[in-house]
């Protein structure tokens, strides 16, 4: 793997796991020291991240992790809901019996995380549940687009779990998805996945937006 690719992957991972939040600066000198490289591969990585809209250039130089304003956040959340619905419909139509059982097992095991009110554990359990759906959908390009949007909205979705006690709501959303898949009802599975993320139809999202730290918003 090229140095620029390793740097790109590192920054992307830090945005995904919340180590880097919207508005945080990207330190080029630190990256050069960390990876033992010149400025060129660092700039190449940052340029690619900028193309992907994960980082933004500042007027006086330097780059920061991109922020979303409220309209952008709603628009991206809305599209993410549509793509998750499409992915779940494909998964319902294409998953094997073994994959369906894996999904049921993952969902059952995640309930203990909800009962403990374990936000970090839920992030992992939630991603495991969705990754089974992405795999079952048999469409890597769709997964790629979903993951790009999930990375862009990660900091805001992480705040959702802590700000509005959403773990049980999210778990119940997974229950609806699983029930539809077990019934081989692809249309209902898609609706359940859409409703699971749809900002327009979820009162908790308005509450979340009102409580978001201002420093996260563009």
Written account of the structure:
The chain is mostly helical and 218 residues long. It folds into two domains: 3-65, Winged helix-like DNA-binding domain superfamily/Winged helix DNA-binding domain (Arc Repressor Mutant, subunit A), CATH 1.10.10.10; 70-216, Four Helix Bundle (Hemerythrin (Met), subunit A), CATH 1.20.120. 73% of the residues lie in helices and 4% in strands. The protein has ten helices and three strands; from the N terminus they run αβααββααααααα. The protein has helices at residues 3-17, 28-35, 39-51, 70-94, 97-115, 119-137, 140-163, 167-182, 186-197, 203-211; strands at residues 25-26, 55-57, 63-65. A three-stranded antiparallel beta sheet has the order 1-3-2. Helix 4 (70-94) runs parallel beside helix 8 (167-182), helix 6 (119-137) runs parallel beside helix 8 and helix 8 (167-182) runs antiparallel to helix 9. The chain is globular. The model has no long low-confidence stretch (mean pLDDT 89).
Order of helices and strands: HEHHEEHHHHHHH
Query: Averaging pLDDT over every residue, what do you get?
Result: 89
CATH architecture of the largest domain: Up-down Bundle
CATH topology of the largest domain: Four Helix Bundle (Hemerythrin (Met), subunit A)
Overall number of structural domains: 2
Side by side, the strands of the main sheet go: 1-3-2
What separation lies between the terminal Cα atoms?
34 Å
Give me the Rg, rounded: 18 Å
CATH top level label of the largest domain:
Mainly Alpha
What helical percentage do the residues reach?
A: over 70%
Note the overall shape: globular
Largest sheet: 3 strands, antiparallel
Number of strands: 3
The CATH homologous superfamily of the largest domain corresponds to: GntR ligand-binding domain-like
Strand content: under 5%
What is the SS-derived class?
A: mainly alpha
């Amino acid at each position: 793997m090229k140095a620029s690719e390793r740097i790109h992957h590192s920054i992307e991972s830090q945005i995904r796991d919340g180590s880097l939040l919207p508005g945080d600066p990207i330190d080029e000198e630190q990256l050069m020291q960390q990876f033992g490289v010149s400025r060129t591969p660092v700039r190449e990585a940052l340029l690619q991240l900028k193309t992907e809209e994960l980082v933004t250039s500042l007027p006086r130089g330097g780059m920061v992790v991109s922020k979303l304003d409220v309209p952008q956040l709603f628009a991206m959340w809305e599209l993410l809901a549509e793509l998750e619905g499409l992915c779940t419909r494909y998964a319902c139509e294409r998953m094997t019996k073994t994959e369906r059982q894996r999904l049921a097992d993952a969902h059952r095991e995640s309930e203990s995380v909800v009962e403990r009110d374990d936000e970090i554990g839920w992030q992992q359990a939630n991603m495991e549940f969705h990754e089974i759906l992405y795999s079952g959908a048999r469409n890597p390009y769709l997964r790629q687009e979903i993951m790009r949007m999930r990375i862009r909205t990660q900091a805001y979705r992480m705040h959702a779990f802590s700000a509005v006690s959403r773990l049980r709501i999210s778990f119940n959303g997974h229950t609806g998805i699983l029930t539809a898949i077990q019934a081989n009802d692809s249309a209902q599975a898609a609706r359940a996945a859409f409703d699971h993320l749809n900002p327009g139809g979820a009162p908790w999202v308005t509450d979340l937006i009102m409580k978001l730290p201002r420093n996260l918003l563009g």
